[in-house]
Amino acid sequence: MKTISYTESRARYAEVLDAVTDNREEVIITRAGHEPVVMISLADYESLRETACLMRSPENSRRLLDAVERLESGGGRPHELLPGD
């Protein structure tokens, strides 16, 4: 994760935005006397929100984590996607 100052982010704004959107970089922007902020792409933000929503319920969280564990230990079967999916 890259960290830059507010001043640098203003001077290189288009470059920073391109790095965030095109390369999926996360950029921390610091400001004197203020809390830093993180710049991420909208797609990454929406993904984080969706994950947080899915993990909010302890039962759903446990079910999803169990499924990931089964998949990583060799469980699961490959499936072909239907056209249009």
How would you describe the overall organization of this protein?
Belongs to the phD/YefM antitoxin family. This is Antitoxin. Antitoxin component of a type II toxin-antitoxin (TA) system. This protein is of the alpha+beta class and 85 residues long. It folds into two domains: 2-40, 3-Layer(aba) Sandwich (YefM-like fold), CATH 3.40.1620; 43-72. 54% of the residues lie in helices and 18% in strands. It contains four helices and three strands, in the order βααββαα. It has helices at 6-11, 13-22, 42-56, 58-72, and strands at residues 2-5, 27-31, 34-39. A hairpin with a 2-residue loop joins strand 2 and strand 3. It is elongated and about 50 Å long. The mean pLDDT is 94.
In brief:
This protein is an alpha+beta fold. It has helices spanning 6-11, 13-22, 42-56, 58-72; strands spanning 2-5, 27-31, 34-39. A three-stranded mixed β-sheet has the order 1-2-3.
Biggest pleated-sheet summary: 3 strands, mixed
How many DSSP H or I helices? Answer: 4
Over all CA atoms, what is the radius of gyration?
19 Å
Gap between N and C termini: 33 Å
Write the layout of secondary structure elements.
Elements: E1 2-5, H1 6-11, H2 13-22, E2 27-31, E3 34-39, H3 42-56, H4 58-72
Parallel strand pairs: 1-2
Antiparallel strand pairs: 2-3
Features:
Antitoxin_Phd/YefM, Antitoxin, YefM-like fold, 85 residues, YefM-like_sf, phD/YefM_antitoxin
